[in-house]
Write a structure and sequence with these properties.
It comes from Moritella yayanosii. With about 240 residues, this protein is mostly helical. It has one domain. It has six helices and seven strands; from the N terminus they run H-E-H-H-E-E-E-E-H-H-H-E-E. Helix 1 crosses helix 3, helix 2 packs across helix 3 and helix 3 crosses helix 5.
Length: about 240
């Protein structure tokens, strides 16, 4: 396939996961969140929008939600690219579209692709997204405290959540294979193996389930409850 054809598959596969993950190959119009830009003020505006729409939840929730919104698309695209396309775009240079209280939609400004084995691609993604996410953390740190340990826990949970989604889309994949892939992803991001303990085999279904190491704090929003994979749930406490 030509490079553009790979992107067509990526964009179609993305929309099949969720319509919010809508991509395009387009020239840079100067808008959106991109690693080359000064994103601090733009991200702060997102944070402030969340503080207005969920004022009761508090600063810890607003910060956690802001971080999760920044990272969810790049992580999903990384998994789709590695396992569906067997190639990856220049993911560090992803351009994310920001809306009122949400991040949805992405663009790439070049059709460059990186080819390699599964293990090689995961290693490259780890380096690229580590640099991208650190740029986000530095941008946020200009207006509030955001510890590396805090963001690393959320990144680990985001990666392991995609492992669980892989199993849902491809139920023939064995638990052993998925656990092996999870370790590759954690290694690529230089995250400790202790996060693997968050993946447990459900006794009833014999499939993996995730118990996060971090809480997204959504239960602090009016009318919301603890998530099924929340470590605060009594059944998930170790």
């Amino acid at each position: 396939m030509q490079n553009n054809e790979y992107f067509e598959v990526l964009f179609e596969s993305s929309k099949q996961v969720t319509p919010y993950l809508s991509g395009q190959l387009a020239a840079d119009n100067g808008e959106g969140i991109h690693i080359s830009r000064h994103n601090s003020e733009t991200i702060q505006q997102l944070y402030q929008q969340l503080s207005l729409s969920s004022a009761e939840a508090g600063r810890a929730y607003w910060l956690t939600r802001t971080w999760d919104l920044l990272c969810w698309q790049p992580i999903y695209i990384a998994f789709i690219s590695v396992y569906k396309l067997n190639v990856i775009p220049d993911i560090k240079n992803i351009n994310q579209s920001i809306h009122s209280g949400f991040i949805s939609g992405y663009r790439f400004h070049t059709s460059a692709l990186i080819f390699g084995s599964n293990d090689e691609l995961i290693a490259v993604v780890g380096l690229q997204l580590t640099a991208l996410f650190e740029s986000y953390r530095q941008a946020i740190s200009q207006w509030t405290r955001i510890r590396p340990g805090f963001t690393k826990h959320l990144i680990a949970d985001g990666l392991l959540n995609c492992i669980i989604k892989m199993q849902a889309y491809a139920p023939t994949l064995s638990n052993a294979y998925l656990l092996g892939q999870a370790k590759l992803w954690l290694d690529a991001f230089e995250l400790p193996d202790k996060h693997l303990s968050g993946l447990q085999v459900d006794a009833t279904s014999n499939t993996l389930k995730l118990v996060r190491t971090s809480c997204c704090l959504v239960y602090k929003c009016t009318g919301r409850n603890l998530c099924a994979d929340c470590p605060r749930l009594p059944d998930n406490k170790r």
